[in-house]
Amino acid sequence: MTEACPIREGAGAHPDALALTFAGQGWTYAALDEAVGRWVAALRARGVGKGECVGVLSTNHAALVHLFFALGRVGAVLAPFNARLTPSELGPMVEDVAPRLLLALSPFVSLLPGAEPLESFADTVARASPDCPPLESGAARVILFTSGTTGRPKGAVLTEGNFRASARGSRANLGAHPAPRWLGTLPLFHVGGLAMLTRTAYDGGCLVLRERFDADDTNRALDTEGITHASFVATTLERILDARQDAPVPASFQCALIGGGPVPAPLLARARAAGIVSLQTYGLTESCSQAATERPDEADGLTAGRALPGLEVRVVGPSGEPLAPGEEGELEVRGPTVMAGYWNRPEATREVLREEGWLRTRDLGRLDARGRLTVLARRTDLILRGGENVYPAEVEKVLADHPSVREAAVVGVPHARWGEVPVAFVVPRDGAPLAADVLEAWCQERLARFKLPTRLLPLDALPRNAMGKVERGALRQRALAPGLTPTP
C-alpha cells in the first residue's frame, strides 16, 4: 500500500493555507512543498538513496521539518538524536545506524564528528526537485532511540504506516477539525513531537513550531495564534497556568494531550476552569506515541482512557494469558501503530513483539469494565514489600494530589525485614518546607499501610534524564545514603 506525500497533497488542495510557522516565518503548503523539493535535490546530490539513513542532532527547527518530508520522498530514514546527549552517549547511536549523512544544527556540530550544518544544507540548491513518488506504508521513516535506562539504547523503527495510523486514531478520538493548529513544543527527536508534525500534515493543518517550551511564550501562542491543540506534561501544564494566573484561554482552543504519567486532580480542575480540556494519555515510542487516550466527552482524569481507535490494549498474566477487567498485569498493545522492530536488534525485537502482533510494553496496569486503562508502574519500578505489590504511580498520585506538593517520585529500596520498602521524594510547591507529618497523615487516609512511604525526602527538583524521565536509579542511590536508611 502506498500514500501520497501530505505536503504535495496540501499544495494541490489548499496551496495558500499555512502548514508551518517557526521563529517569525511561515510556510504555506505551496511554499513548504517547494522547500521540501529543494531538500530532495540536495539529498540526491549527496547520494542519499532509498533505505539509507541520515543522522541529525538538532533542537526544533524548520529545517528539520523540511528534511523529514524530503527523506520521505527520497525513501531514506531519519535518525534524530537527542540534543541533550553528550558525545559519549551519541557515539553508540551513530555507530548503530551507520548514517550516509550526518547533519547538526550549528550549535551542535562540534558534538557530532563529521556533521554538516543543518540550516544551510539545502541553501546551494537552485532548483527544487519535482519528484514526489508515493510513500510505501511499510517503509521505515524514523529510527527513534529509547531512553536506554538499562543497557544500550535501542532504535525503534517507525514506518509511514505507523504515523498514518496514529494520526487516524487520534483524529477519531478527538474529532475531526477543519484546520487544526498544533502548538509544537515537544522536541522533534521525540515520538510525541514527530506525531504532532505528521498528524498536522495529514489533517491539512498548521504546526506552530517552537524551539523549546517556555510558559510565557506558550501563553502568548494560546492567546494570539489561534492554537487549537497542544501536548503537555503535568509540570508544563502547571507552569502555563501559573504564568497566566489561571486566566481562561480563547474558546478556539480544543484540548491538550497530557503524557508522562498521572496528573494531580487539583491541576486538572485548574486546567478545566481555564478552558484547557486536558486528556490523559498512555503511549510509548514503540507504539508511535499514543496507545490509549481519554475521550473528550468522558474524561475524568481517573485513567489514561481507552485504546486509541484502531488499536487494542490488553492486560496479561505471567504466562501471557489475558486477564479480566480489574486484574493487574503486564500491558500489551496491538495495531497498525506498533513499530516494525528495533534497528539491527533481532533478538530484542523478538523479546517484545509477541505472536499475533502483540507488543510487550513491560508496563504494569489494569483495565476497568469500560476498557479504560490505569497504568501502575514499569515492571522494573515495581516495589515488592513483604509479598505485596506497591505501584509507584499510585503512591505518587496520592502525594501529588496534596496542594503543597508540586511533584513526587517513589522508589523501592532494600529492607532486611520486608525485602523492599517505598521511599518518596517530594518537591514542595513554591519552595515551602516539607510538612512531612501533614503528608504522612494525607497518605494514611488514602493508602493501605503497606503502601505508605517509609521516608518522605524533600528535593528542589526531581533528577531527569535527557528524555525528561525521572532518574529512579539516582533516587535509589540517594535513598540509600548514610542516615537515610528506611526504618520498619
Notes on the protein architecture:
The protein is α/β, with parallel strands linked by helices and 488 residues long. The protein folds into two domains: 2-373, 3-Layer(aba) Sandwich (Rossmann fold), CATH 3.40.50.12780; 382-479, GMP Synthetase, Chain A, domain 3 (2-Layer Sandwich). 29% of the residues lie in helices and 27% in strands. The chain contains 13 helices and 27 strands. It has helices at residues 6-13, 29-45, 62-74, 87-97, 160-174, 191-202, 215-224, 234-244, 265-273, 346-352, 392-400, 436-446, 472-479; strands at 2-3, 18-22, 25-28, 53-57, 77-81, 101-104, 116-117, 135-136, 140-145, 155-159, 181-184, 206-209, 229-233, 255-259, 278-284, 289-293, 306-307, 312-316, 329-334, 341-342, 359-367, 373-378, 383-385, 388-390, 405-415, 419-428, 455-458. The strands form seven sheets. Strands 3-2-12-11-13-14-15-16-17 form a nine-stranded mixed beta sheet, sandwiched between helices. A four-stranded parallel beta sheet has the order 5-4-6-7, sandwiched between helices. It has a four-stranded antiparallel beta sheet with strand order 18-19-21-22. Helix 8 links the parallel strand 13 (229-233) and strand 14. Helix 2 packs across helix 3 and helix 5 (160-174) crosses helix 6 (191-202). The chain is globular. The protein starts with a strand and ends in a 9-residue tail after the last helix.
